[in-house]
Amino acid sequence: MTQVTWSGKGFRDYGGRMNSPDAGCGCGCGAPSRSGLLSIGTPPGLAPVATGRGAHDIPQAAIPAGTFVMGDSSGDRNSADGEVPLHEVTLSAFSIDATAVTNDAFAAFIEATGYVTEAESFGYSAVFHLAVTAPDGDIVGVPAQTPWWRGVRGAFWRRPGGAGSSLDGIGDHPVVHVSWNDAQAYCAWAGRRLPTEAEWEFASRGGIDGAKYPWGDEEVDAGGWRANIWQGTFPTVNTLEDGFLTTAPVSSFAPNGYGLRQTVGNVWEWCEDWFSPRTYSPQPVTAPRGPDRGAARVLRGGSYLCHISYCNRYRNSARSQNTPDSSMGNAGFRTVAA
Ligand SMILES: [Ca+2]
Ligand SMILES: [Ca+2]
What we know:
Blueprint: E1 4-5, H1 34-37, E2 60-63, E3 66-70, E4 87-91, E5 94-97, H2 103-113, H3 118-122, E6 124-128, E7 139-141, E8 149-153, H4 180-190, E9 192-193, H5 197-205, E10 232-233, E11 237-238, E12 268-274, E13 285-286, E14 297-300, E15 319-322, E16 331-332, E17 336-337
Parallel strand pairs: 4-13, 12-16
Antiparallel strand pairs: 1-11, 2-5, 3-4, 6-8, 7-8, 9-17, 10-11, 12-14, 14-15
Bound molecules: calcium ion (2 copies).
């Protein structure tokens, strides 16, 4: 069996400033925040983005108006994440990207606008250690609490592993190393917006009430792998049973009942809302938009780094977060019609 094994040369501390890397995701599945990687200077202002309706070449899924029960009803919740209390949410119909925004689609945005992403303006981004293609000299930090991450100088959406990597052959993979702020810039150009957390969960459920996964309650490996997560021993040995160490093409794996692919697994997806573990209350709500303020934005769906042994967040109701300027190799986004 093909597998990828980390040599175990040891997690080295490169002397960078390491803040709490993963405060809201106690098992360490999310990437460290921007400041938790390493601060290597104040970024310049980001390039302005022309607003309007640019090309947005992503197939659409139509989500009907409806009421659903939001939150974890399977008992798999992570207590610090605020996946409960269960509550009824009513939404109007909307149109959402059937897949994550691809490298090709993001390239069209960059070509049209000249936008500079935050990974570029800060000069580094978070790369999983087995995906680093850069020399040791480009490593600017190893977060103490999530030492499988590297802060890699020169890693950004077009060079997802750092120097030596490219998008050759992965134009149809999800764009990564995009911050929440970068996703906003893309949306402004495309005439779109990010989904609210409630919209994301409703769409991910695919019309199946109360299920753990987009396809129902069957486990993720029942009858073959249904999502791109981690198999083997995290974070050192990936047995690649689903075929992918890092990202998979966005059209991989079967769609859910609404036609969405890979809401769970592959890459985390930014949502519009501020994150709070106290967002939910038992009362029914219509079109909730989350807290009015916060320090971090919501991420949903888990990624290729999720594994049952340490992070079960590849579920419809699972929540995570990061600061809006953070970027990493396992997070991207999908959009909804504005
Ligand atoms: Ca995988
Ligand atoms: Ca996903």
